[in-house]
Amino acid sequence: MQIYLPIAEVSVNAFLLLGLGGIVGILSGMFGVGGGFLMTPLLFFIGIPPAVAVATEANQIVASSFSGVLAHFKRKTVDFRMGTVLLVGGLIGAALGVVVFNYLKSLGQVDLLVKLCYVVFLGVVGGLMFIESLNAIRRTNAPAGTAPRKRKNHTWIHALPFKMKFRVSGLYISVIPPVIVGVVVGILAAIMGVGGGFIMVPAMIYLLGMPTKVVVGTSLFQIIFVTAFTTMLHATTNYTVDMMLAVLLLVGGVIGAQIGTRIGAKMKAEQLRILLALMVLGVCSKLALDLLLTPSELYSIGLGGH
Amino acid sequence: MLRAFLIALLLATPAAAQNLVLGLSESEVAITTTFDGSDILVFGAIKHESAVTQEAKLDLIVTVKGPDQATTVYRKDRRFGIWVNAATVEVDAAPSFYAIETTRPIADILGDEADRYYEITLPRVIKPSAEGHGNNDVALFTEALMRIRQDANKYQLREWDAALIDNTLFRTDVELPANLVEGAYEVSVFLLKDKKVISTYSTVLDVRKAGLERWMYNLSRQQPFYYGILSLIIAISAGWGASAIFRVFQR
What span is annotated as the signal peptide, if there is one (chain B) (predicted)? Predict the structure, then answer.
């Protein structure tokens, strides 16, 4: 069934959108990522204008994250204090990101820079996570007693001021690193149409040293507010949020997220991480190939003059 | 089919030109949620003032032209190993949709002079701005624009598609694709003899969003703040609703 999207001004198959929403929703629930890093490129591929894809995806992530975070509330795996600190950074970052996005759009290079951002971030994060999870699996398989698990060493992070106690995470650290992580994630949310979970989750585990158990719920908590803010910014400055597109994606997405959260709870953290790493690397290499291989059509059309 | 056509001819109130009358099967196209393209029947008749024109070999061109848009055409080039948009040409006005329907191959019936004056063929319709950036072959870019839009069925050339019966009645079907831009679509008929346009007539076909589509679009432009809030309310209630439904199933 074809359906006409009022803001994107294209006609697409409604079941295709529902299906995409569902698959990405399952992954979102499983890994605690918004799924935007998958959905936004998929929307490009089916012909949604990039500006509309990015803005609408932010709106859709609100829905799938909300559905996911409720499940985490029940299991008490959300660190509200840490989430709020990350959120403060996120809102600053999102505002910066929308300014940068609108500037790139005026240059006509928004497509390339969005794709380059994807390749760089997904490549680095996916690669690091993959190596780390492999090591973790090897450690658990090794005979017991050889390497007692060390508590995170005192690094430069512990020397920073403005320390705060995060009881749920069992941490006593400075608020500066989480705020910076929040800012970076906010910028990415606005420019790439992603929740930013794929970069926040590893940052929380490896940089802040949070326990894996609370990482997913806390990142979803932050993502909801940052993507809601981003949606408002895009809706009021670019008019690029397509409600019809968002509804179709989120109907599939929220159902998928519920299923995904249940699958995720049954799997081991190491397995989850290695799967997420593989997915991130897969999307990264697909986008990299698009940039590297000779395209079949060298020309493309954009609306509006400069 | 002919009967349906004649009935349509009687029902519609065709506007009269000097010696062409023209009607459309619909005076407006409503883009609704399930809009999946539309076929428009363009029909009309030719009034002959003397027997001479009735004997002559006449031909017909029907064009349907969507709203003009300022358009930028990008060309990718390999820079530092990756393909980036390296050259651009700005087109001041390119129609979002353009269909040409003719009775015979356009090269056989339309002279260059007439084309230049009436701007019928695509290269005459598309107007690139004087200079391109970083290249000199503007023609390659406009060709690419035409090729891409032709592949998307947005630019159509259907030779032999228009029917002219007894040099008097004519009809043709224009297929509007699903991805239409809103606006006034100009429908023109050109009557040709010896490669010259001897008569022409134009009318307007209104293409507009309707119902839910219209409402959403207007809200997003006129009340963007409330549109954003509404998007968020829908998103959050959908997320919460799904979660509640799954809790019920789990018990």
Answer: 1-17
- Which of B179, B188, B167 has its CA nearest to residue B120? B188
What's the rounded Cα separation, in Å, for the pair A111 and A48? 12
Q: Give the predicted TM-score (pTM) of the model.
A: 0.74
CB contact under 8 A, A247 and B32: no
Give the model confidence (pLDDT) of A80-98 as tens digits: 888 899 999 999 999 999 8
Summarize the confidence of residues B83-112 as an average pLDDT.
Answer: 86
Cβ–Cβ < 8 Å for B60, B20:
no
Interface test with A, best of B231, B234, B246 (most A CBs within 10 A): B231
Instruction: Decide if A305 is inside a domain.
Output: no
Residue pair A94/A229 in contact by the 8 Å Cβ criterion? yes
Q: Which residues have a Cβ under 8 Å from the Cβ of B127 and sit 6 or more positions away? A: B91, B92, B93, B94
Q: Is B6 on the interface with A (CB under 8 A)?
A: no
Per-window interface: A 102-121 vs B, CB < 8 A: 108-109, 111-112, 116
pLDDT digit string, tens, across residues A68-84: 788 788 888 888 888 89
The strands making up B163-165's β-sheet, listed across from edge to edge, are B15-16, B20-24, B38-46, B169-176, B163-165
Does A145 map to a domain?
no
What does the domain layout of chain B look like in residue ranges?
Answer: 2-206, 216-250
Radius of gyration of chain B from its Cα atoms, rounded to whole angstroms? 24
Strand order through the sheet with B98-102: B28-31, B196-209, B183-193, B59-65, B98-102, B155-158
Quote the distance between the C-alpha of residue B106 and its chain's center. Answer: 18
User: Could you give the CA distance from residue B184 to residue B82 in angstroms, rounded to a whole number?
Assistant: 41
Instruction: Answer yes or no: is pLDDT of B68 > 60.
Output: yes
Inter-residue contact A94 to A233 (CB < 8 Å) = yes
User: Which of B88, B135, B243 to mutate: most A Cβ within 10 Å?
Assistant: B243
Q: Which residue of A has its CA nearest to B35?
A: A4
> In this structure, is residue A302 part of a structural domain?
no
Q: What ipTM, to 2 d.p.?
A: 0.77
Domain that holds residue A98: 2-140+155-292
